[in-house]
Design brief:
alpha+beta
Amino acid sequence: MRQREGRRQLLHIGAVAERTELSLRTLRHYDEIGLVNPSERSEGRFRLYSEADVERILLIRRMKPLDFTLEQMRELLDITHDVAQPDAPIEARQKLQEIEAIAIERRTALEKKVAMADEFLSRLRDLSDPTRHEGPGMQGD
């Protein structure tokens, strides 16, 4: 459900969960630990998320498969805020580059795992279909 506050469009937690493919429980947890807080609450105390909130949540979701910790996610959210400023500190840009290097390293490791999984699946297919590895003229004549 969308709610308009002035010109700004706000989303209820269910719409955010659907859009980010995260559970309501995860979104509530992020709010409880202060990782991503909704911009506002309705009169009934329902969480209302802005587009900027959703972007922050999506950034976190993209970090999850690379096994970043909640603390590293929090740090990156702070850094992305800092580097978006016109007078961004050089330390923030350097830290962002460090995080990028870690992400590249972890992505490479994931690629290797996917390649191993593909090899495994190929082997399973070979084992489950004996005709795949028989040569011509070798099928039960």
